[in-house]
Amino acid sequence: MADSYAAYKQLKFDRPAERVLRITFDRPERLNALDSDGHRELCDVWRDIDRDSSVSAVILRGVGRAFSAGGDFSMIEKVIADPVYRWQALKEARDLVYNVINCSKPIVSAIHGPAVGAGLVAALLADVSIAARNARIIDGHTRLGVAAGDHAAIIWPLLCGMAKAKYYLLLCEAMSGEEAERIGLVSLCVEESELQDKALEIAVKLAAGAPAAIRLTKYALNNWLRMMGPIYDASTAYEMLGFASGEAAEGLASHREKRAPRFNPDCPL
Question: Which residues of the chain carry a pLDDT beneath 50?
Answer without folding.
Answer: 1
